[in-house]
Amino acid sequence: MGSETLLNENAIKSPAVKAWKEKGGKAIGTICCHVPEELIDAAGMLPVRLRGTGCTDDSEAEAWMSPFSCSFARAQFEYLLNGTYDFLNGIATSDGCLLAGRIHDNWKYAGKEKIEKEGFMLSMTSTPRIVESRHTMGYYKEELEALKADLERVSGEKITDEKLKASARKYNETRALIREMYELRKAPQPAISGTEALELTLAAMSMEKGEFNKKIRAFIGEAKNRKPPAAPRVRLMIIGSAIDDPAFLKIIEDKGGLVVTDVQCFGSRYLWEPVAIDDSDVMGSLAKSYLERPVCPRILDIHDELYKLYMDMVKDYAVDGVIYVRMKYCEIWGGESLLFESKFKEAGIPLLTLEREEIMTNEGQLAVRVEAFIEMIEKEDR
Amino acid sequence: MANLMQELARLSDDIYEHIEKKNPQILFMFDVQRLYWNNTLNAHAEGKKLVYVGAGAPCELLWAFPNIWPFLLDMFPTRLGSDPERASKYIDIAEKYVAPTMCAIDKVDLGAVFSGDLPDTPDAFIWSSVPCDNSRSAYPAIEGYFQDRGARGLKVDIPFRKDERSFRYIAEQYKDLIPQLEEIAGQKLDRDYFKEVMAISNETAGYMAKIADLRKLKPCPLPGRLLVLNEMIPAMAGHPAMRDFVKTQYELGKMLVDMGMTATKAQPEVFRVSWLQNMLWSNVGTLDWLEKQYGATVVMDAFGYQKTPLFTNPDDIDTVLFNLAQKTLALPMIHGASGPIEDYANLVENVMEDYAVDVSMFVGHVGCKHTWAAAKVIKDMVMEKFGLPTLTIDVDAVDGRYKTTEEIRGIIGEYMDNIVEQKEKGNYPPKKA
To answer: Which of A315, A349, B45, B416 has its CA 20 to 30 A from that of B347?
Structure first.
């Protein structure tokens, strides 16, 4: 399978989603990366991560969620309202942030007819925010048991431990392959751009993972044989709020900065750390694996691990500068700079802070700021 | 270097002395504030452990240690809201570090801490994962700041829902908190003393319920302004001074009712208003203005609506901790806004119904993005069930620079003028569909 085919799969209603639905398969939307997709997969359904990629008008959603909610949440809700996600049979949300919760809440009202007449599933998982407490895992496990029951109801399939273990194995393979793809970006002249890498992880978010694994394996094989482009002017890492729009990264890369890695939940934070399954407690081990990952600052006692991840990424990917992108009104990431800015400064890592809205209107300004940042890094390097 | 705690303690002394001369009958409102600020200032000098707490900390459990003086960090922004110069100083400091869209309550918390204007480092900072994403961003940084200066940091995870399982989950964590508090206090938890604290807390809650009932009467005997002090009640529930404050408030209200009078400026009461979101600490005078200008009393708001659960069995520690967990999830801001939308909608519905509200206003604090994201559902419910339209206005509850008094009153006034006009024509309140 050629790389182009896989790159075409990053649309919200991708060819893979269409094919899945045509076969009569059910699809479950997920909001926040603390909804373990393995559970949906084990129920024989297709997990599809909700996003707002390409949204150009969120006015209906704004009427529901106000202009003070983050535009990423608004765009997702707009797509629910305008039928972009009509192929879904349900949504599984985790309270990643309060606005994620409000998408779920508002859909209870806006999607009432669908829920009542079509049996559309609406499930909310309360994910703990503090990992160090000895009570946390038990609570999250019970929440996942509740999600499992919801999924079994919609799918009509029993989610056995064996099915869940098989899903975890398949997903771990996806994780390993995504890491392998990222590994190629460590090269001095990486053959994969940041824009392309994001397109690949977006494709993974709405594709059955067995199929994705085959395709990305082929892609990696192809990419290894690509003629490397010229060395980038600077190597950049993106951290911060969700970025689900390759066009945003393209603006950065068009200015000569190559995004070689990231710490954001539509990139490396999607599927990376393997799930370690303990046969004696399959659900418990799934809960543990999901909760202990350094994903985003919504986990309140994981800031040190997150910072260590930034620094490891900087070292491993030979990063010249970090771009911290915070979505306007994303307070989870909005305060994170307090915890890393001075440390980056001490470590001599150049940092650029950008504010983003899901509907891009400031492309020129973004390009100018990125260009200045790249020039600043280049001057420092001389 | 400035000492914010000292400044606020002095300020509360000055206000107290001023009121004592000018308006002694309302001195009780300032008594409790003076005590709170001064005791916080002097905690270490009096040999107590000073413990800062974030929203959602189990205050009665802290009051159960005579050697601990807990101070609710959010008292800074709610107090400084009426002091634009100081508030903006700390907001500006915070904005050097965090996104300017962060809630000004948390920005003042952060700014006050990071300014260095609190030279008396607390012995511990206890916080929880509620009420919102703003506090979840601010509290870990504040914890880190204090930990770097030798304080202990303790935290509790508060889940999304308000059900039995959530209460149990929180109660288990509170149980783990006890030995840690004992270490901080340097004393064991005295269960008999704790029972006394619980008894006071229950008494306080009882008076709160009675006050809430008084506010249901027509005319409402107590001014909207008094709702503003609600922020302070849970922080001191369990302390005798707070019990005495609400007792006096109730007795005053009851006396007014018996005399057929009201302490509001609404003479007569023409409209009964509810604010469906936060409290406007930066512009409390607007409540008086509404009463005076339009005879419109804010009878209850969705921020302070407190139906606090009681301690049902002080002899049984598991029940006590379970009740504490219930109380946490019933705290202002947490009770309605931090979980499922139904909690918020039910709270507003109860306010509208119980208090016979006929003017609905979503005076929305811009920092509360999650309540804004629920506004349509709430306003639709108010229209559907009560036939009332809702004025929507964005304000900053703490940062007075966001909108001037004139702007706020201009918008509210225009709406009220329309209502008055419609009422004169017999068209208001609108007939329910």
So the answer is: B416
